[in-house]
Amino acid sequence: MVMNVIDRRLNPKGKSLPNRQRFIRLAKATIKEAVVRSIRERNLGDVESKEVVSIPMKRIAEPRLRHASQGGDRDQVFPGNKEFVRGDTLPKPKPGKGEQGSQGAPDGEGEDDFRFTISAEEYLNVLFEELELPDMAKAQLKDTATLKWRRAGHSSSGSPSNLNLLRTMRHSLARRICLGRPRPHEVAELEAEIARLEALEAPGAETLAELELLRAKRAHMETRSRRVAYIDPVDLRFNRFETNPVPSAQAVMFCLMDVSGSMTEDMKDLAKRFFLLLHLFLTRQYEHVDLVFIRHTSEAKEVDEQTFFHSQETGGTVVSTALAEMRRIVDERYPVEQWNIYAAQASDGDNYSSDSGRCIELLTQQILPICQYFAYVEVYDPRQAEIFLSSLNVSELWKDYQTAQPTFPNFAMRRVFSKADVFPVFHQLFAKTRAAA
Amino acid sequence: MSGLLFDTGEWNFDTLKRTYDAIEEIAVGEMGLDPYPNQIELISSEQMLDAYSSIGMPVFYHHWSFGKRFARDEAMYRKGYSGLAYEIVINSNPCISYIMEENTMTMQALVMAHAAFGHNHFFKNNYLFKEQTDAGGILDYLNFAKSYIAHCEERHGISAVERILDTAHALMDQGVNRYGRRARPSLAAEAARAEARVAHYHDTFNDLWRTLPPPKAAGDKAVKPAPLARGAPHMPEENLLYFLEKFAPRLRDWERELLRIVRNIAQYFYPQRQTKVMNEGCATYVHYRIMNRLYDLGKISEGAILEFLTSHTAVVFQPDFDDQRYSGINPYALGFEMMCDIERVVTNPTDEDREFLPEIAGRGDAMAVLKEAWANFRDDSFVAQYLSPHLMRKMKLFKLENRAADPHYKVAAIHDDRGYREVRRALASQYDPSLRDPNIQVTGANLAGDRRLVMTHRLQNDMPLAEKDAKAVLGYVADLWGFDVELRGVNHDDQERYRYEMDAQPKGAATAAA
After folding, report:
1. Are B470 and B498 in contact (CB under 8 A)?
2. For residue range B328-367, what is the model confidence (pLDDT) as tens digits?
3. Quick one: pLDDT at residue B389?
C-alpha cells in the first residue's frame, strides 16, 4: 500500500488567528475594561509584554441542551471496589459543601472566569481603538523630506543594471517571430541538406536545380538573419523606479515634568500614567519612538526614566527652563524635518511668577511651531481635587498657557484629578471626533 | 549492524518509512487489518495547537468558539497543565494522521501503529462509520463549508453568520439522525432489480389485457393521489437542526445552508461519540500487538520497548473511584482490557467464559472475533455483549444506585455471581447515546396557525436539563424560529415536569437576553 509522509512543519502557523479575532471581537467590552485597568501597573516603555485578561464565563458561554449534574435517578458503574458488598449504603454529600468544586466543573456549570493572554498588539488595538493622531499632525506628516525608491512599472530606457531580462527576451522573441527571423535549427537543417546534396557523387540535373534552389534559400536566410537582429534596442525593457516621499517613520517624545517639592508622589504617578499612554500610542503610529525625559525645578536637566520618576528633588519652579532645554535638545539631536516631535508636560501649575512671560514666549515662538502636538496636563493631588475642581480656581501657569490655546490647534491642555481621569483625558485629547481641544 | 529499525530516539524520514513498512507488514500481513491508504503528516507543536482548535480537522470554518478553545488550550499548554496529544487522526480516505516532530522515534512508531492502522481500520470497517460518514468526501466538504461560510461572512457580515452558527452549535447534539438512513442501493443492485422487474413482466405477460378498452382520460387523472402538501413536517422530529433548516419560516436560503453544514458535520462526528471505548480500545490493542511483535522480531531495541511500555501504561491507567486522579472510566483502559480479554476468552477460555460468552469462547482465532466485534458494534452493545466476569473482577466494577428520593447511595451490584449481569447492563447503558443525551423532539409547530414551536423533552430517569443552559438555547431557537417557542419536560408517565417558554423577540434580542 502506498504511504505518504508529508512534512507540514513549514506550513504557515496561526491557522487559528481568524478564530481568535472573532473571539476577541466578541469579548471586546471585557477586554477593554481589563486593558484600561492594566495601564495602572505598567512601566513606561514596557510595551512588549503581554496582558492576561479574564472574562466572566457567561459572556462567552456556549450553552447546550444537556442534563443537569444533579437530580433524577442515575446509576453509575465505578472501578476499584475495595470493601463494598451488595446492599451497602453510603451517605450522599450535603449539597453545597466541599464536593461542589470537583463535581461541578466537568459539567461546565462553574462560573469561573475564562482567562487568556492577549498579545501586545491586540492590547494596543483595543486600547487605542477609537483614537487617532490629530488631523493637523497628519497633514504635517505628509510634507516630510524623506524620499524612498519604489517600483513603478517598466520603461524602454534606463541603466543596464535595471534591465528586465524576462520582458526584454519576451519582446525579442515576439519580434523575431513576427519578422520571420530564421530559427537556428531551420538553418542547420538546410545546411545539412545542402551538404548531403553536395556530397553526392554524380548529381543529376534535378539535384543540381534543387541545390541551386536551396542555396538561394540559404542566402535569403542569411540576409534575413542579419537584418532582423536577435536583440534589438526596441526590445529592451528596464525596471523603472520612482522616488516618492514617505512620511517619516520616527518620532521623539519629550516628557517634561515639574519635580519641585510641590509635586507629590501621587501627582507624579498621575503624570507617569499619562506619559505611558502617549508613548504607547505613538509606538503604534511610528516605527521608532525616542523618549526624552526632562525634569525641572528651577533649572532643567535631561535624565533617564528611573531618575525622572523616582528621585526626589527640591527647589523652586521655573518652567521656562524645561522649554528651553527641550528646544536645545531638538536643535542638537532631532532635526525638525526628520523627526515628528511630540511633547507632554505635566506640572502642578506652580511657577515662579516672573517666569510667566518668558514661558509663554518660548512656548509660542520656539516650541509649538516645531511640535506635532503639545499636551499640557495639570495634575492635582486627589485630596485637593475639590478645591480646584471649579474652573475658576486655576493655577498661574494654566492661565498663561490658556492665552496660547486659540492660536495653536496643536496645543491642548487638560486637568487630571485622579487615576480614573487619566484615560478619559487622554481619550478626549485624541478621540477621532475631537471637540476643539 | 543488527536488524533494528532504529537505534536512537532521533527520527528521520528514512527511519519513518522503514518503520512504517515493518508495521504494515505486521498489521496487514499478520493481523489482517484492512485500513484506508495512509497519509502521515508531520507537524510542529504549534500546529498541533492550531489543529486542536478546529477539532483536529485540516480545514475548518472560522468561529469565535474555536478561538476561545484555542486560547484555553494554549494557556494550559504554556503553563504546563496539559500536554499535547501525540497524534490526531482523521476519518478520511486517505486516512490522515498528524504526528508531532517532538516525538521520539519510538513514539512515532507507536503513533503510526495506533493511528494509521488501529484507528484507520476501525474507521473503515465499523458499521456506524460506514453508514453515517463519507470518508472519501469529508475533506472536500469541509473545504466547501469553509469557503461558503467565508463567503457568507463577506456578504452578510460576521455577526449575521455568527447568529446562525451560535444557534447551530448549541443544537449540535440534537442535530443528528440517530438511526442510519436506509442504505442507498448500489448501481449493481438497481440493475438487478430492473432486470427482475422485466423478467416478471415477461413471465406474467398476457396478450389478453391488450384487448381491454383504454380508460377514459379524465378518470385516469382522478385516480392519481394528490401530492403531499410540500414540506409538511413529519412529527415528531428528533433532529432539531434538520427541522429548523427545513421549516423555520423566516430563514433565508444561505442561513438554511449554514444550519445544514453544521448538521452534516455533527453527523460526521456522531459515530466517534458512540464508539469512544471501542475505537480507542481497538487502536490501543493494535499498537500493543504490533510493538510487541516488532520487539519479538528483533526490530526494536529493549530501550525502545521499555519507552513504549512506559507511555502505553500511562495511557491505559485506570485510577480507582476513590483516587484523586479519578475522572470517570478511562476509555483507553476499558477498551484495551476488553480487547485483551476477548483474546483470552477466544484462545484460552474458562468454564465461566463458556457460560457467559458461549459464542466466542474457545473459537481459537482471536483476530477474527475482534474484527467482527469492531465491525458490528458500538460502545453500549459491545460492553453488553463482551464484558466478561473475569474483567469485571479484574477492574473491580460495582454499580452505585443514586435515587433522587433516597438520602443514601446504594451499592446495587458488585463483581460477584449475583451482580455480573447487572453491572454489565448498567455499564452498557452508561454508553447508550439515547440515555446519555437528553431526548428532545419537536412535537408541534402549527405552521398554518400561530407557528408556535413546541419541543418535548422526555425525561429519562427523571434527570432534568441544566436549566440555565436550556433557557439560553431556547432563546437562540426562538431567535431563529421567529415565533414563540416552548420546551416541555415530560415524565415517563406523561406528566409535565416543567415548561420553559420563550417569546419571539426582535432579531438579536434573544442572544442578549440569554
Report:
1. no
2. 899 999 999 999 999 999 999 999 999 999 989 888 899 9
3. 94
Give B43's strand partners: B100
The Cα of B157 is separated from the nearest Cα of chain A by a number of Å equal to 12
CB A11 within 8 A of CB B47: yes
Cβ–Cβ pairs < 8 A, chains A and B: 260
What is the DSSP code (8-state) at residue B115? I
The minimal CB distance from B321 to the residues A2, A79, A85 is found for A79
C-alpha cell of B97? 494522521
pLDDT the model gives residue A432: 61
**pLDDT tens track for B273-305:** 899 999 999 999 999 999 999 999 999 999 999
Nearest CA-CA partner of A325 in A288, A299, A289, A351: A299
Q: In this prediction, does ipTM exceed 0.85?
A: no
Angle between helix B276-296 and B366-376 (nearest 10): 150
Test A81 with B427 for CB contact under 8 angstroms: no
Of the two residues B51 and A388, the one the predictor is more confident about is B51
pLDDT at A142 over 60: no
Closest CA to A197 of A215, A222, A216, A220: A215
Task: Report residue B23: phi and psi, to 5°.
Answer: -65, -40
CA–CA dist A70, B402 (Å, integer): 10
> Residues near A369 by Cβ (< 8 Å), separated by ≥ 6?
none
* Residue A435 reports pLDDT greater than 60: no
pTM of the model: 0.70
A15 chain-B contacts, CB cut-off 8 A: 47, 50, 54
C-alpha cell at B251: 430563514
H helix intervals, B316-388: 331-347, 351-356, 366-376, 379-386
Sheet holding B87-90, edge to edge: A3-7, B38-43, B95-100, B87-90
Task: Give chain A positions within 8 Å (CB) of B158.
Answer: 22, 25
Inter-chain residue contact B39 with A6, CB threshold 8 Å: yes
3-state secondary structure of A291: strand
Report the residue of A10, A54, A77, A114 to disrupt the B interface, i.e. the one with the largest count of B CBs within 10 Å.
A77
A179-201 pLDDT, tens digit each: 989 888 989 999 998 898 888 88
Q: Which domains does chain B have, with CATH numbers?
A: 13-126+275-310 (no CATH), 318-435 (no CATH), 437-513 (3.40.1350)
Is the Cβ pair B54, A81 closer than 8 Å? Answer: no
Strands (E), A158-248: 238-245
Share of chain A above pLDDT 90, in %: 8
Q: Which residues of chain B are within 8 Å of residue A85 when distances are taken between CB atoms?
A: 411, 414
**Segment B241-246 mean pLDDT:** 91
- Tell me which residues of chain A, numbers 370 to 389, contact chain B at a CB-CB cutoff of 8 Å: none
The letter for the amino acid at B47 is: Q
Whether residue A341 is predicted with pLDDT greater than 70 in this model: the reply is yes
CATH number of A250-430: 3.40.50.410
Minimal CA separation from B391 to chain A, in Å = 11
If you average pLDDT over residues A410-419, what whole number do you get?
A: 81
Nearest-Å Rg of the Cα atoms of chain A is: 39
Higher pLDDT, B493 or B95: B95
Q: Hey, where are the domains in chain A? A: 160-240, 250-430
Averaged pLDDT for residues B372-387: 94
Give the residue carrying C-alpha cell 489543529: B51
Q: What letter represents residue A44's amino acid?
A: L
Give helix then strand counts, H and E, for chain A: 15, 13
**pLDDT of amino acid A244:** 76
Question: Taking CB atoms and an 8 Å limit, are A86 and B409 in contact across chains?
Answer: no
C-alpha distances in angstroms, B36 versus A317, B138, B289? 83, 14, 20
Pick the residue from chain A with its C-alpha nearest to B53.
Answer: A16
